Known about the structure:
Number of strands: 0
Low-confidence stretches: none
Oligomer: single chain
Radius of gyration: 24 Å
Structural class: mainly alpha
Helix content: over 70%
Order of helices and strands: H
Mean pLDDT: 83
Largest sheet: none
Amino acid sequence: MGNKEPRSLTREDGEVIMRAFLRPCAEALLDHFERVRREERREAIKRCLGKLWPFSKS
């Protein structure tokens, strides 16, 4: 380890760092929204079926 001057970060470095940090967050959010949307669809389908077929107790 020489004591070289630390080189300044370039725009590319910043983008790589941001992508590295943000990708897991973005993927987690997308997974969460997909799950929520799936649950909402399931509930909506159950409600519709309940109206069409009142005898089905799900």
